[in-house]
Structures are given as C-alpha cells and as structure tokens.
Design brief:
Layout lengths: L6 H4 L4 H8 L3 E2 L2 H6 L12 E8 L3 H13 L5 E4 L8 H4 L3 E3 L6 H7 L4 H21 L11 E5 L12 E3 H7 L7 E5 L2 E3 L2 H14 L3 E3 L4 E7 L2 E6 L3 E9 L16 E10 L4 H7 L6 E4 L5 E5 L5 E9 L14 H14 L8 E11 L6 E5 L4 E5 L8 H14 L9 H4 L10 H17 L7 H8 L7
Parallel strand pairs: 1-17, 2-3, 2-12, 3-9, 5-14, 12-19
Antiparallel strand pairs: 4-8, 5-7, 6-7, 10-11, 11-12, 13-16, 13-17, 14-15, 15-16, 18-19
Helix pairs in contact: 2-11, 4-9, 4-12
The protein binds flavin-adenine dinucleotide (FAD).
Flavin-adenine dinucleotide binds next to helix 4, helix 5, strand 4, strand 13 and strand 17.
C-alpha cells in the first residue's frame, strides 16, 4: 500500500508562519513559570528516624505521603526529593486527569480481560475521590471536570470511534477545526494545572505533618535488621518502610533498571486567545482534546485561555539517557507548531510563548507495575507511560496497602501482582524502540495499516505507545 500524507501534512501552513509563531517562545515549562516562586523545603541535613520514608516528590511520592497521613495521622513520614517538588513529569504534563488506570480501555481489556470491569470501576472511583481530595485538601489546581473529546482526523480513524459517535458537524460544533471528521466524548476526564497540583499536594503533606525535604538525592537504600537505611548525599533516614516513587529516573533497585525507558514528549503553549480567536474555534465545553493517530496530539485550554498543544513526536534518547538538552528540539517543536496551524487555520498569526518537553516513564505494558522488596519493607511503582496524573493517586494507595501487608482488593489484582517484561539492554533497546516508532509513523501514513513487525509486537502484547 502506498504511503500518503497525513491530514496535518496536507494542510501544512507556509513554513514562515511556523517560524513566526515560534519566534518569541521561550524554552521553559509554562506551568512552572505560571506558578512563579514556590515555597522551598529545606534539604535533609541530619540523621533522623521515621516510620515511612518516601523517595520522590512527584505525584506518586506526594500522594503516598498525603494518603499515609490521612490513613494514620500519627505516622511519621519523611519525603525526600532530589531537586524540587514537581519539577519533573508532574509539573510539566498536559494535565489530563483520566479515570483509566490501564492506559486506556483497549490496553486494559487486552492485558487483564478478567479484571478489567473492576479496574474501570476503581478508576472512576479514584477520579471521584481525587475530586474530593482537591476540595478537602484545598489543592487549588484549577480542577475542571470537562470530559474528553477524541477526534478522527483521517477517514480510517472514523472506524476506531465507538460509543456515541459524533459526525463532523457535531464535532466541529464543539471544537472547530476543518481537520475534524468525527469524534467521541468521554466523561471521565478532568483537567488540572499540573504544577499547582504538585505544589498543592506538597503543602497539604506539610500541613498534615510530613517532613518534606528538597535537594535531597537518595543515593542508596539498604536493610539493617528490621530497619531500612535511606542515605542521601548529606544524611541518612532510618525507617520501618520506604516508598520508591522515582518515576523515569534511574531506579534505586537494580531489578527495576530495565523496567522503564524514557521517551521525550514535546509541548507548546500559545499566548492567551483573544475573545475573537476563542470565538473562531468554539471550545465552549473546554474538553481535553486528542486525535486518534498512533502518534497523537493532545490539546487543552488553560485557565487564561491559552492553548496547550503537545504530543506527536516521542523521542527515545540515545542510550536511554536523560539530559536537559533533549527538552529543546527545534524539529519537534516546529512540527508541533505546523500541525497546530493546520488544525486551527483560523488562529493564523498567533504566537507560542513556551516550548518544552518531559521524559515519560514507558513500561512494556504501558501501565504502571508494582512490587515490594527487602522483606516487604520497600514498595515501588513506575511505568505510567504518559498517563499518570490520575493513576498515581490510586498507585499510592496500592503501595501503602502493600506495605501494610494486609491483602486488599487492589493488591489481589493481577495487574498489581504480575511484573511485565523488561526492555532489552542497549543497544537492542534503541534498535527495537526506534524501529517501532518508525513503523507507527508509517502506519499513520498508510491508512492505519500496521506492518508485520508491529503485528508481531501486538500479538506479543509489546506494541509501543506514548
Ligand atoms: C510532557 C508530558 C506530558 C504528560 N501529559 C500527561 C497527561 O496529560 N495526563 C497524564 O495522566 N499523564 C501525563 N504525563 C505523565 C505524568 O506526568 C506522569 O505519569 C506522572 O507525573 C508521574 O509521576 P511520578 O511521581 O511517578 O514521577 P515524577 O513526576 O517524575 O516524579 C519523580 C520524582 O522523583 C525524584 N527522584 C528521582 N530519583 C530520586 C532520588 N534518587 N532521590 C530523591 N528523589 C528522586 C525526581 O526528582 C522527581 O521529582 C505526561 C508526562 C509528560 C512528561
């Protein structure tokens, strides 16, 4: 089958418009800039003793600390963050807080068919409980339960819509783009301001009595009798239990080193839309928006009516090594800007103010994996694969259940008990991941048709997604 150009390529704007639109953008995370100066938490400088030590100040670690205190206010909890709270994925994501715990229904049903219905109910209950926590803990994260609009931008994607399918006119009545051929609304998504969520959780944790320390990198954990010794560059914490919530960063447990790979995801934010620009695209319902391509885009409005536009390129860095230089990639940001102007030609002349990227902790099952070590004293989770805003809250409950040692409905799930396959070591990982990305791009250019390599991966449950 011949390759053809995608809708974004067919409608590509004049390259000069792309250059102009990006000319004033700064390589900086809009959400973190928007917050400005955040409260600082002192580094750990003296040896201390606690009941629970949490390593990592992203959503997973913060939720673990908060939920631990909510379960047992008398429990002593220390949280150690290598840099600053929420600086990594948790402060720079799209802010789509979805109910799904399984990276979508298709992935969930194909891997855990017998327990999917329960997982779906737990996901919706988690989203409701999240909303209650936002209110009760005063998280001030601009929570908007808008739902999500998935759109088909190619004829072949229309067949992938299910549920109450909207035709082109009905879709464009919600968000107006000449590229939209049809769509589907799902209710179980809220939007948040990611950085305000992380900082709100840190404040709530501190108010509940959690000792939060920034600039405190954990270098090693080891067991000493019935106590865990958690060493930072400056001091050591002795504790009964440890939660490892280090995201995409090198795992402190050797056994987890090959369980995730980093994949960079790119994002742009526009200046605030004028009243006229907003009227030109509609979007009165402010839904989270995503297209159905393998290499998909996601978009949303901010509180002050900027458009955040991200996704598409998903770049595996050479050797799987993280480095800030991967966050400013001119070709990826230009491609995103071009696709944005193809989607919303009504907004010609608009400027992007911010461009950035973040590393996603990709696992071979596209959803988090869980486990314990050191005789049940240490619990870990990682591998949220770009869908962790909602799922990390649920995962934190799983980790606390595992440390409590009492079986629960959550810890009985096969999704929690079974470990996915690791990635192969380098250089095989690079070769495999890059071949997969190439094949997915090709499928998007061949009416969705997957090549033999992807079909083999699909059969083995090893396809690749961002
Ligand atoms: C660009 C982008 C867009 C995304 N969009 C969405 C979205 O719209 N919806 C969605 O659901 N998900 C999205 N995600 C994914 C989501 O952001 C993550 O799944 C989630 O933030 C993961 O939280 P975390 O706590 O596991 O990891 P992180 O936020 O990465 O936190 C881990 C923390 O651990 C710290 N740490 C690591 N090692 C150590 C150590 N040795 N000692 C002390 N501290 C350590 C790090 O400094 C870091 O702060 C996106 C991700 C990216 C990058």
């Amino acid at each position: 089958m011949a390759t053809h150009r995608t809708a974004y390529e067919r409608q590509a704007p004049d390259p000069r418009l792309v250059t102009d639109a990006l000319a004033d953008s700064v390589p900086s995370v809009y959400w973190l800039d928007d917050v400005g100066a955040a409260p600082a938490y002192d580094p750990l400088t003296a040896r201390t003793r606690t009941d629970l030590t949490v390593v990592g100040g992203g959503y997973l670690g913060l939720w673990a600390a908060v939920r631990a205190k909510r379960r047992d206010p008398g429990r002593r909890v220390v949280l150690l963050e290598a840099q600053t709270v929420g600086w990594a994925a948790s402060g720079r994501n799209g802010g789509f807080c979805e109910a799904s715990l399984t990276h979508g229904e298709d992935n969930g049903r194909s891997r855990w068919p017998e327990e999917y219905d329960v997982l779906e109910q737990m996901g919706v209950a988690n989203l409701d409980a999240f909303e209650a926590d936002v209110r009760d803990l005063d998280l001030a994260c601009e929570w908007e339960r808008t739902g999500q609009l998935s759109v088909a931008v190619e004829e072949h994607q229309l067949a992938w819509l299910d549920g109450d399918v909207l035709d082109a006119a009905a879709t464009r009545a919600l968000v107006d783009s000449p590229l939209f051929l049809g769509g589907e609304l799902s209710p179980d998504t809220a939007l948040v301001h990611p950085a305000r969520l992380a900082l709100g959780l840190a404040r709530a944790a501190a108010e509940l009595g959690v000792e939060v320390h920034e600039h405190s990198t954990v270098t090693a954990i080891r067991r000493d009798g019935s106590t865990m010794e958690v060493a930072t560059d400056r001091a050591t914490v002795s504790s009964d239990h440890v939660v490892l919530a280090t995201g995409v960063f090198p795992a402190l447990l050797r056994r987890n080193r090959l369980m995730t790979v980093p994949v960079y995801d790119y994002v742009l934010v526009t200046e605030p839309l004028t009243v006229e620009q907003r009227a030109a695209i509609g979007w009165a319902g402010r839904q989270g928006l995503g297209d159905l391509a393998n290499q998909f885009h996601y978009a949303r409005l901010t509180a002050d009516d900027r458009v955040l536009w991200g996704g598409y390129d998903a770049v595996y860095p050479a050797g799987g090594r993280l480095h800030p230089r991967h966050e400013d990639r001119p070709e990826s940001h230009a491609r995103l800007a071009s696709h944005f102007l193809a989607t919303f030609p009504q907004l010609e002349g608009i400027r992007f103010t911010h461009r950035w990227a973040g590393a996603i902790d990709t696992s071979t099952q596209f959803a988090a994996f869980y486990g314990t070590s050191h005789g049940g004293r240490v619990a870990h989770a990682a591998g949220f694969t770009g869908l962790g805003v909602g799922a990390t809250r649920w995962a934190a409950e799983v980790l606390l259940d595992l440390l409590a040692g009492q079986p629960t409905e959550r810890t009985g799930l096969r999704m929690v008990r079974e470990r996915p396959l690791p990635f192969p070591p380098e250089p095989l990982a690079s070769a495999g991941i890059n071949l997969t990305r190439w094949s997915l791009d090709r499928a998007d250019h061949r009416a969705g048709r997957r090549n033999a390599y992807l079909r083999v991966l699909d059969r083995a449950g090893l396809g690749f997604d961002s």
